[in-house]
Predict the 3D structure of the following.
Amino acid sequence: MSIRFKLTIMFLFISVIPLVIISIMTFNNYKSSLEQTRISELRYIAAYKADRIEYYFHNLKAGIKIAQTLYNIKWNLPVLTKYDNDRNNPAYARAVKTLDGQLINMQNVMELSDIILINPGGDIAYLSSPSNFSNSLEEIINPSEMNVLKNDRERVFFSDIFLNRATGSRPSMVIAVPVYDFGNKYIGIIAYLLDMKYIYNLIQDVTGLGKTGETLVAKEFGNRVVFLNPLRQDPNAALKRYVLMGDRPGAPVQEAVRGKTGTGILPDYQGDMVIASWRYIPVINWGMVAKIDVSEAFSQVEKLKNLAMMIFMIIFALCAVLVFFMARSISEPIKRLSNGAEIIGKGSLDHKVGIGTKDEIGKLSRAFDKMTSDLKKITASRDELDNEITERKKAEQALKRSNENLEQFAYVASHDLQEPLRMMASFSELLERRYKNRLDSDADEFIGFIVDGAKRMQKLINDLLAYSRIGRPGTAYQDIDCNNTLAKVISSMINSIEEKGAVITNDELPVLPGIESEFIQLFQNLIGNAVKFHGNDSPRVHISAERQPGHWLFSVKDNGIGIESQYKDKIFLIFQRLHARGEYPGTGIGLSICKKIIESRGGRIWVESESGKGSVFYFTIPIKGEDENEQ
Ligand code: ADP
């Protein structure tokens, strides 16, 4: 997974999660506050209308209570009753006229359809507007109700709504009270005929209720809840449409007629979910509901949801673009850096990453470029070094080859020279023996030179051959007891030792693997020199060996003339001597033979000396399988 991809996902998470949370929270807040607003609006509408209805009926009730006490009615209703069968009687006409004078006016002022007076027999005795009422009275106030009314002076009767035939079946209603004469005798009933127009206007006013909202009133009849007013979806509903008590549809209206007040989201009479507020109107025993379809009430929520979705998508898209570029601006330099690293890794040290920004990546890039250029310098000097080493190795090999050639030549030459030299030596000695004192003295001296020259040359060639032989393959290592070897050497040198009065001592020496002839040469040369280069005192030589980490350290100590410090290395070179032959005899090969033997075994040889105070020659013999630095 690339860095850019990771960064993009990360940034999107960071930006989108809060966005989603905020959107959902805002949306829910808005939805619930809208719901609350809607419910309180509906509650208000229901309360307002119910109050108005209650107030309306309350006023009517008060009005009819006053009518109950009217002198005019108390006086004239019995007259009408009395002359019911004699309507041409002037008293009847007078009574009607008197009643008209007051009641028609009252009807108009109170916006009633009619004022009806009923005689104790239950028949209509008087109508303020005869043309406004033609229904049978019994279907409005049934006889048993009449009976109840007759005996209860306080009672105000509210009829059910009925269709008034005289006014084209307009829903109407009657309220009624009993009337008593001055002697408290029941003389009949006063009834107000109301057109429901006023109530309906109030109920059906849909201000604030949108397209689906409405208010309705209903009344309970047995197990039916009958709607009393035309409905928005059903103009003929008044008195015809009902819901069954206990059914799910119309739950709010059922609650209302049961005397409850409340709000909620419930199915209406059509089964649609509505937000509803309901309450009971006690004065006439009605239930009232104000409601609006949930779909409409929350249409704004739906709109908001869409808007929120749109805003979310836009912000998301913006975030995505922003994040993409941001991630790229971060990942691109890293990519450049990693590409650069790869190119440099393949060996192009001239490549530069070259990011000039001031941030951490810019710093990293500069550090990287610096590292590359340093690396380039180091590589260049390493290359030079490599070249130099190769050159040196070549030279060393050439030198080694030429040394080998030279040694081969020396060996062959010395070897081949031995024979003619031996001949020269023996014949010159023969010459000396036979002709000594028989020629002149010059000739004797010259022959002596020849003999001496031939001997020296033999010694030189022997030494050279010994030198050449060292390190030649062929001889296997054996355990050499150095004490024995030393004893052999001393006994071979016994003449010169005695001649010089030398004293030779030694410590216990080790047994070491090696080639005995080499050890012999070592001791011979070193002890020979120690005896040879003596000072005024007779020579004292001491040989010792010490076990040290990784090697044995041998020393050969003398009390001779010593060596000046500037010659300490020179004396180990072949043919290098510090003295004239006349002073000390020798070929200048002895120490170089020692050096060659020691170095062929991986050891070291050196001298510690002061002029006139004797010398100590040291050499080491490494012990196989042991590290020099081990303690
Ligand atoms: P040679 O003994 O044949 O001269 P070497 O190679 O053995 O040749 O010695 C080289 C020179 O080192 C000698 O000529 C001498 O000057 C010096 N030298 C060697 N051993 C000693 C010693 N023990 N004391 C003083 N000088 C020495």
